[in-house]
Design goal:
Length: 174
């Protein structure tokens, strides 16, 4: 991969092949087959205009991934079953560590300004990482504009605007 390429979601980057103390910039989007897989995995009606701009800063003990991920998704309304479109604009700031690096203790992880990913091997599956961020950013209770207002306890099911993994974990712990 050169310093400014376009890759598909299925691209696997090998840690050992990356030059230390360097930066790689690339765009990434899914192929038609990968889009179909995203639709099935995330239980969407449709997904389109998926793109990301990624910068990898490579150091000996970590890779810092920064960038943005954008997708337009169509989900099914939980009340009316009508299609609901949403645009996902997801900021990315992830530190990726090789298998031999010890994981950050959970309570410290929640205070970090970035997410962490610990690899099982020296393979970085960019598309899988981006797919997980799309899934985490989906509205778990999409409602069509014509849907009736939620009643009683249903109001507490509406998601907050924050869709980061750490925000979701903090909500679970509180």
């Amino acid at each position: 991969m050169s310093k400014a390429d376009h890759i598909n979601f299925s691209t696997t980057i090998l840690w050992r092949n990356l030059p230390t103390n360097s930066t790689l910039n690339f765009t990434c989007s899914p192929s038609e087959d990968e889009l179909e897989d995203l639709i099935n995995r995330a239980q969407l009606l449709d997904i389109r205009d998926v793109s990301s701009h990624v910068e990898l800063s490579i150091q000996k003990e970590e890779i810092e991934l920064k960038g943005a991920l954008r997708a337009v998704v169509t989900q099914e309304c939980v009340a009316t079953m009508k299609p609901v479109d949403a645009t996902l604009d997801i900021p990315l700031h992830i530190k990726i560590y090789p298998p031999y690096v010890k994981e950050t203790p959970f309570d410290e992880f929640l205070e970090l300004e970035y997410d962490e990913e610990y690899l099982d091997s020296d393979e970085i599956h960019i598309g899988e990482l981006l797919t997980q961020y799309i899934a985490l950013s989906l509205n778990p209770y999409p409602r069509h504009k014509d849907a009736p207002e939620p009643k009683g306890d249903e109001k507490n099911l509406e998601p907050e605007n924050e869709n980061t993994l750490k925000h979701q974990l903090k909500k679970l712990l509180n």
